[in-house]
Amino acid sequence: MSILIDGNSRVIVQGFTGREGSFHAAQMIEYGTRVVGGVTPGKGGQMHLERPVFHTVAEAVRETGADVSVIFVPAAFAADAIIEAALSDIRLIVCISEGVPALDMVKVKSFLGTTRSRLIGPNCPGVISPGKCKVGIMPARIHRPGRVGIVSRSGTLTYVAVDQISGEGLGQSTCIGIGGDPIIGTSFVDALELFGADEQTAAVVMIGEIGGSMEEQAAEFIGKGFAKPVLSFIAGQTAPPGRRMGHAGAIISGGRGTAAEKMAVLREHGVHVVENPAEIGRAARRILGQAPGRIAKSKEGGR
Amino acid sequence: MKIHEYQAKELFARHGVAVPRGGMAETAEKALAVAETLGYPCVVKAQVHAGGRGKAGGVKLARDRAEAERHISAILGMNLVSQQTGPEGRRVRKLLVEQGLDIARELYLAILLDREREMPVIIASCQGGMEIEAVAREHPDAVFKVHVHPATGLFPGHARSLAFRLGLGKAQQQSFAALLARLYDLFLQFDASLVEINPLIVTRGDEVLALDAKVNFDDNALCRHPDIAALRDLDEEEPLEVEASKFDLNYIRLDGTIGCMVNGAGLAMATMDIIQFYGGEPANFLDIGGATSAERVQEAFKILLADPNVRAVLVNIFGGIVRTDRVAGGIVAAARGLDIRIPIVIRLVGTNEEEGLRILRESGLNFITETELSDAVRRVVELARGA
After folding, report:
1. Is A154's CB within 8 Å of B266's CB?
2. What is the predicted ipTM?
3. Looking at B5, B6, B108, B251, which residue is catalytic?
4. What pTM did the predictor assign?
5. Among residues A67, A60, A107, A70, which one has the least CA distance to residue A89?
6. Where are the beta strands (DSSP E) in chain A?
7. Smallest CA–CA separation between A286 and chain B, in Å?
8. Smallest Cα distance from A60 to chain B, Å
9. Phi and psi at residue B178, in whole multiples of 5°?
10. Residues B183, B109 contacting (CB under 8 angstroms)
11. Which residues of B touch A159 (CB under 8 A)?
12. Which residues of chain B have pLDDT under 50?
C-alpha cells in the first residue's frame, strides 16, 4: 500500500520554474510521478516541462485536481508557500526549502492545526514510495519496492541507509525525510502511526539525531504497543553540546537531547538500536526476520 | 548567532527594557573614563561569548578609582577560562563598565522556543544568578513556565501569573509586566532563539532591571535583520570556522586527530560517530553540502589541513544528487595545489562512482580508496594512530 503518496497522487511544484524546482520536477517526472503542473506567481499561462504553470495554488488545484504539492521556494518565502497550499486544500505539502526561520514555523504549525493538510519538512529530502511515486530530491535509483518503512531527520544519511537496505536485497514501502529543523510538520510519532496502519510495511527504520525530544516521544509511542519491529540509529553520539551540527534542530541544549539519552530511552521501549551506521542494512534484515512473516494481501485492493 | 552582553543591553535600552547605566570599552583608558563618569561603586565585566564569567574572575566590583584601575587592568586582555570556554579559554578584548546597584532580589527571566509545544515559552525563577539548568534539577518548583500561543500573543495574565509566583509587590509587578511585554516584542521582532536575563534584579527602590543580558538569534532569520547580523563579532569565533563560513561550508572544530569531509549534516555526524566506534577521534564536523564545486572541495581541504592536530583525513561522499566524479575532480585539484603529507582515505559511492574512482586512481596522487564504510573508517583510524 505504502503511505502518503502512491501512483494516484497528483503533484504540483511550487517554485516550478526556478533552478531547483525545474531540475527536481524533471527528475520526478522521469521517475513516473504524476506531476500535473506547477506554480510560479507571474508566470501563469506558460508551459514548463510540458506542464501548465499557474499564478496560484488555488488555480492549479482547480485546473489539475492536484492533491500533493512540493515546495522549492527560497526559505524566506516558504511559510507563505505552505500557507497558500493549505488554504487551497492540498492534502500533502512537502517543503524541501532549507533555512526557514523557526518563528515562521511556529505560525505555520499553529495555522495547519486548523486545516486538513499534512506538512512534511521543511529542510527535508521529501517522500518516496518506491516504484510508485517520488515527491522530493532523493536519488531514485537506490530505492526498491519492499516492506521496510523509513523515517529520518536527515537527507544523505537516509540515502546511505536506503542503499544498505536495498543492498541486502530488501526494499522500502515508503521513505519519509521529516527534516532537520526544530519545528517540522510531521514527527516520528506521526510517521509511525501511518506505518503502523500500512499493510505493506513490516518493519520501520527510524533515523534520529541529537536535539529536541521527538525520538523520546517515539520511544514512548512504540512502548505502548506498536506492533511492528523498529530499528533506530541516532546520529551525533560524538557531537559537542551547545553546537548546531549542520541541521538547525541538531543541538544539545542544557544537557538535553543527547544521542546517549535517546538511545537509552529507545532501547527501554523495545527498539533495536544500532551504534554503527554501517550496520543499518544488516540489522534491518535481522529485524525483518522477526516481523510477521508475510505481507497481508488486501482483498479490497484499496484502503 | 550570539552577541555580547553590552550589545544585548543596547538593544534592550532601545526597546525600553531597563538596564543599568554603563558603557563598553576596548582600552583601559576608556574603561576608566566610563567608571569615572558613572561614579562608584561600579562593576567591571569581561565581554566574551561564554557564561561562567563571574567564577572565572571576569566580573569585579570596584568601590573607588584605585580598585577600578586594578580590575580593569586585570580583566582586559586576560585569558578567561570558564566551563563554557573550554580549557583553552577566551581572550578578553572588551569590557562593560556599569553602575553598581543596590540589589534587593535576584530573579531569572528568559524567553525561548519550546520545540515540543512548538511555541515560545517564558521561564522565570526566584533563584536568579544561578545556572537555570541546575535550579531546574535541584528545585524544580522554583522554576515557573508559561507558554505564549502565536495566535493570541502575550496577555497581561502571562505577566500577572509570573509576578505572583515570583512574589513581587504591587509597584514591582507593574515594572515587571512592562519589561516582559517589551522583551517579548523584542524576541519576536528580531527572531531571537533565546532572550535570557540572569539575574533580573529588583532594587531597593522597587525598580526591575536586567543586570545581565543574553540574546541569541535564529541564524535562518538573519537575512531579514541586517542590523543584527552586523553585530557578529568574529573575534569570538574559532578562526577556521569563520574561514569555512565564507565558503558556505559547515565546519565545527573538535579536538580529535581524524579530519572528515562529508556531504550532508546527518551523514557528517554519523561519520564522526563511526570513527569513534572504531576507536578514533574526529577532528571536526564538516558538511560540504549538496552543490559541490571543485573550488569548495579545495577550500574544505585547506581548512581541514590547517588544523595541526589532524593526522589523517577521511572523505565520505554519498553521491545522490552530488556527482562523485566532480567531487573527485575537486579533491585532485585540491591535493595538487596543496602540500599534503598525511594519508587521505576516500570513500566515494553513488552517481558516477566509477568515473570518480578512475579520476582518483589516475591522478598519480597517493589516495587510499575504500568502498565499504566500515573498511574506510578502520583504515583511517589505523593510519591516524600510525602517523
Report:
1. yes
2. 0.91
3. B108
4. 0.93
5. A67
6. 10-14, 34-39, 47-48, 51-54, 68-71, 92-95, 118-120, 126-129, 133-136, 145-152, 172-177, 203-209, 230-235, 272-273
7. 19
8. 28
9. -65, -45
10. yes
11. 264, 318, 320, 350
12. none
